[in-house]
Design goal:
Elements lengths: L3 E3 L2 H13 L4 E6 L5 H13 L2 E6 L19 H10 L4 E3 L3 H4 L18 H4 L3 H15 L4 E5 L3 H13 L5 E5 L19 H6 L2 H14 L5 H12 L5 E10 L12 E10 L2 E10 L2
Parallel strand pairs: 1-4, 2-3, 2-5, 3-4, 5-6
Antiparallel strand pairs: 7-8, 8-9
Helix pairs in contact: 6-7, 9-10
The protein binds pantoate.
Length: about 280
């Protein structure tokens, strides 16, 4: 059986409810489309784990700020449909904006604190849009497991918090970041980079690797790590650093002295693209 495309939320929910009543394990991969290897990896993980795999494809307007790239965000539905079908996905849920946000829509989910740091500073309201749409997706597609990329570490921390706080019965599975051969994290927004910017953009990964080497060598002072990372980023004039943060991976609280499970995260603008990347460390 090929992939089935569904636009209507009620039809989608009925299909999943029927599959659940037949004791099938349901996996959901929420996406905004324009698939790259990172998305395909999420689909493969879901396919390995679950009986029924649903990919949602919805460019969610509420997570884009004024002046951000909602209108220009890359879209290619037919290509995405074929790629998802090749991965053995059962359903592609692709609603219209009016199906998800009908007239009069006025309910939002906000994860306080976690949403206001790091990317939340440059993108106020972004994570409110993410938390709202992901809650809606969990209600429309009552999956047992939902798959998210580790590249969006802050998004993951927020979704985990939200699922815990709101008792949403879904297991959140994080999947390691998929990288190009030179280390650049895969992102739909990499398409905005011209060839010079594309080369310069690898500095995000190089800075993270520099941090990893220093941590391996025993460095535990976050300010020293950040300083060295900044120095490296400043060698690329096309890259404008937004932040480097070193924090715990649950509360996203900045650390001075490195310990436990921690996140080193970086965000920068390169030409039109705003890029993010991170590495996780477990220092016990
Ligand atoms: O990570 C994304 O692509 C989006 O933020 C998500 C989770 C699909 C919500 O729109």
């Amino acid at each position: 059986m090929g992939i089935e495309v569904i636009k209507n939320p009620e039809t989608m929910r009925e299909k999943i409810q029927r599959a659940r009543s037949e004791k099938h394990l349901i996996g959901l991969v929420p996406t905004m489309g324009f698939f790259h290897e990172g998305h395909l990896e999420l689909m493969r993980r879901a396919r390995e784990d679950c009986d029924v795999v649903v990919v949602s494809l919805f460019v969610n307007p509420t997570q884009f700020g004024v002046g951000e790239d909602f209108d220009d965000y890359p879209r290619d539905f037919e290509r995405d449909r074929v790629l998802a079908e090749k991965e053995g996905v059962d359903y592609l849920f692709a609603p219209d904006v009016s199906d998800m946000y009908p007239e009069g829509f006025s309910t939002y989910v906000e994860v306080k604190g976690l949403s206001e740091v790091m990317c939340g500073i440059a993108r106020p309201g972004h994570f409110r849009g993410v938390a709202t749409v992901v809650t809606k997706l969990f209600n429309i597609i009552p999956a047992h497991k939902a798959y998210f990329g580790q590249k969006d570490a802050q998004q993951l921390a927020i979704i985990r918090r939200m699922v815990t706080d709101l008792n949403i019965p879904v297991e959140i599975v994080s999947v390691p970041t998929v990288r190009e051969s030179d280390g650049l994290a895969m992102s739909s927004r990499n398409i905005y980079l011209d060839s010079e910017e594309r080369k310069a953009a690898t500095v995000l990964y190089r800075a993270l690797k520099r941090a990893a080497e220093m941590i391996d060598a025993g460095e535990r002072d976050a300010s020293v790590l950040k300083e060295k990372m900044k120095e490296l980023v400043s060698t690329e004039p096309l890259v404008s650093l937004e932040y480097i943060e070193i924090c715990d991976n649950i509360y996203l609280k900045p650390l001075q002295e490195l310990s436990g499970e921690l996140l080193v995260a970086i965000a920068a603008r390169v030409g039109r693209a705003r890029l993010i990347d991170n590495m996780l460390f477990d220092l016990g």
